[in-house]
TrEMBL record, chains A, B, C, D:
It holds the Pfam family TetR_N. GO terms for molecular function: DNA-binding transcription factor activity; transcription cis-regulatory region binding. The keyword Amino-acid biosynthesis does not apply. It comes from the Bacteria. This is AcrR family transcriptional regulator. InterPro entries: Homeodomain-like_sf (IPR009057), HTH-type_TetR-like_transc_reg (IPR050109), HTH_TetR (IPR001647), Tet_transcr_reg_TetR-rel_C_sf (IPR036271), TetR_C (IPR011075). Residues 17-77 form the HTH tetR-type domain. Residues 40-59 bind DNA. It comes from Nocardioides soli. Keywords: DNA-binding, Transcription, Transcription regulation. SUPFAM superfamilies: Homeodomain-like, Tetracyclin repressor-like, C-terminal domain.
Length: 208, 208, 208, 208
DNA sequence: CTATAATCGAGACGGTACGTCACGTCTTGAT
DNA sequence: ATCAAGACGTGACGTACCGTCTCGATTATAG
């Protein structure tokens, strides 16, 4: 994911340690402020206090930098473990809604779609996405099954896709309608989503 | 959405009839082949066999053309009415999975995210998306409520977002993992999705 | 010499008429002010009030532009005809001393050496130099021979080379020593040069 | 001219003996092959098989290196003393014609013009040129005056400039016309040049 | 024999200019 | 009025080179 270790044999001046991170931060900041079409390599370099060559030594082009920047900061998602399936899913939905609402999460989302549209360089990014996001729901479900809260015949990927999709589309609609939900609204939406799918996966019919 | 009807008064040479469509097709093809950053107006014009002026006479800029191209081919979704909520939702999910799997649907999806990321020109596209997609689920739910199959206190947008989201993320994961689901798998996935949310919105607890 | 007439069939917007000259002027001015290493294509374009593309549409690269700029303005040399060989040569020497002393003449000189060092694109420039400079002395000598002032067995190219060389090296030494000769000194030098070679080519021995 | 003697006190690793020369040779070769605009420090260092620091420890910048490279190989001119003014000048002219015809002499010439075009660092190179070349003619003339062969009122610099200029322009025209004179032609040209200026500086009118 | 120190090869660094490419505008002659 | 063609001003792209710097590895003298 990061840079891919070129020819490092200890010879020559080592790459400036902090540079990688400064550039990634600058990239994310520029992207956040000016969007895709206003995202300039020169501006990133200037903001990071670095020459363009330093950037291009590490990333082959604009897309690679942006993808990496997003991957490095946009895939963070705190783990969830409240003790109950309903609690876990609600907390997860809340996290996701907030994640996709924020600049980094949204950027990551967009980049994911861009990346998935091109034949090249799929491997790394896809792996990362699956690792970080897919695993999360898997853990929750496995624990719930162990506790006997969840039916065993539910395909976990379907649960993942549904919750992620709901949060994702909600964030999308928020943006399309230039709306900014309040905290209360976000929490209500999280509860609604979980209320909708919980009966379908729970072992106890009728739970709300 | 369409063309914006410029100065049409009958005087002077009329606009070449087939041009509109040829350009839109070329735009979609170019976008599909090269993605956003490889999408150029010159290439579209060349591919469509027209001059750049012909393009710019109809669309104000790149974004407008691309948005329109997608809207013209990517928002087609046949209406659904099977007589039951479960049947409607299953058919809708199936349609969506197939829609996002295809080139036009995927392109529309990608464009939607791109469009939603920029501050400008939100209005038109958002309206279109809501019109075409939002209405669909609304109809289904209203009919179900009328039939007494669905609880009245479920926010319809939540249903929309969940179903759309599930289909969307499934298509995304298909691409990220370079997978191509068979017809049977797609149908199973549609049933799973509906099975998951149906108990949560139905008036009859325990329904499958 | 100029641009080499590309595909001109009357279609498309014609090249802006004045641009060629404005760019050449700007190039010469920039070269004069900042020298070779301070000569920038961006600066030339900015000074000429045109875009870089307009420049690169006409000249393939920096060298080509500079060569052309110099050729267009640096080869001007007013004809000479005073009626006598001594007068003609003195006037010519004076012209040359002043020509090479000035920015344009000096630039032309330098470019000539650069051009002669590379195997490519010799043809045009060499032709121009010979046309403009070689012809000049030829005329003078032919008239002198006709008048009986000059021996017929003198190779004219030797005369050319000697006079041109003398003026050239004088200008070179002026620059190397950061000296700026006065008008009187320049005239004296012109007379000295002619005095030195006139007896060698004249039919009347002992003339000064 | 040479190296500029840095801090040499005996402590620390001594400079690699052969490096100086290898770098100068590489510089001259690169200059000869690619000309000024294709002359890069990286290429010189690579060709010489040394690091860039080794180069920059010895010369402050590109110009200094190039100037020095040329000065070290391009100013060699064997002294002349045949016993007569005519003989000396003829031999000198011959030497010059051959000198400027060769790669090193031509490179030196080109560098001289380049150097003289820039405002900085004139001193050193100008001194070198004057020292090596100017002195040569001065010696010849002084001996001739002593022998009574040459008039005393002739400005020696004019003689220098004329002979040097003639040889220089001849070499230039040879290159511009992609011509390569034979030995016989070169000797004839040397005699012609001297024949042209000898009467003008000699004390004996009518001498050939 | 160890410490100090200048030099070596390599190559990353902040800059700056290069020549290319696309944008959206414009100007032409033809339809 | 619209068309195909294509030049225009603008500005970002990714590359190359400058002269500087930092590294670990020599290679000498000084103590």
């Amino acid at each position: 994911m990061t840079t891919g270790e070129g020819p490092r044999r200890g010879r020559g001046r080592p790459r400036t340690p902090g540079a990688e991170e400064r550039i990634l931060d600058a990239a994310l900041a520029e992207y956040g402020e000016h969007g895709w079409s206003g995202f300039t390599m020169d501006a990133v370099a200037r903001r990071a206090g670095v020459g363009k060559s330093t950037v291009y030594l590490r990333w082959s082009d604009k897309d690679a930098l942006l993808t990496d920047a997003v991957a490095s900061h946009g895939l963070e998602l705190t783990a969830v473990d409240t003790g109950s399936l309903a609690g876990d899913l609600t907390q997860l939905a809340l996290n996701l809604l907030r994640h996709f609402h924020g600049a980094a999460g949204w950027a990551a989302l967009r980049i994911t779609f861009d990346t998935a549209s091109v034949d090249d360089r799929l491997g790394d990014f896809a792996e990362a996405v699956n690792e970080v996001h897919g695993r999360q729901v898997e853990q929750i479900c496995l624990r719930a099954i162990e506790r006997g809260e969840m039916a065993e015949d539910i395909p976990i990927t379907a649960v993942t896709e549904t919750i992620y999709g709901a949060a994702m589309v909600h964030a999308l609609s928020e943006r399309l309608e230039a709306r900014a939900d309040s905290d209360v609204e976000v929490e209500a939406r999280a509860r609604h989503i979980v209320a909708m799918i919980l009966p379908g996966i729970s072992t106890m019919p009728g739970t709300t």
